[in-house]
Here is the input.
Amino acid sequence: MKRAEILEAARVCVCGERERDYGTPENNFETIGLLWGVYLRAAHPELAKVMAVNHIAAKDVAAMMGLLKVARIATGSSPDSFVDLAGYAACAGEIATKEDSNV
Here is the structure.
């Protein structure tokens, strides 16, 4: 795939059906962050002393999902992993710039 094709495929994913299916990335990633926080506190009780349940922010979820894609690329790349990585980066960037403008 050419870079423009990867970016266009990512745009279609994050600006189209996925948002209709799962809601906005911000809301979806906030929910994932809450669930991850609860899981981490339950699986590692020592974290409950230092980590609030809602400590994993939407921007962090998007970045970590990008890291998941990087790990998949490292062990055997599929064009879909690059598309998803671009999509997660775009979502993280949008969330971060919204947060910056709300400060």
Remarks:
- Residues 41 and 66 are 23 Å apart (CA to CA).
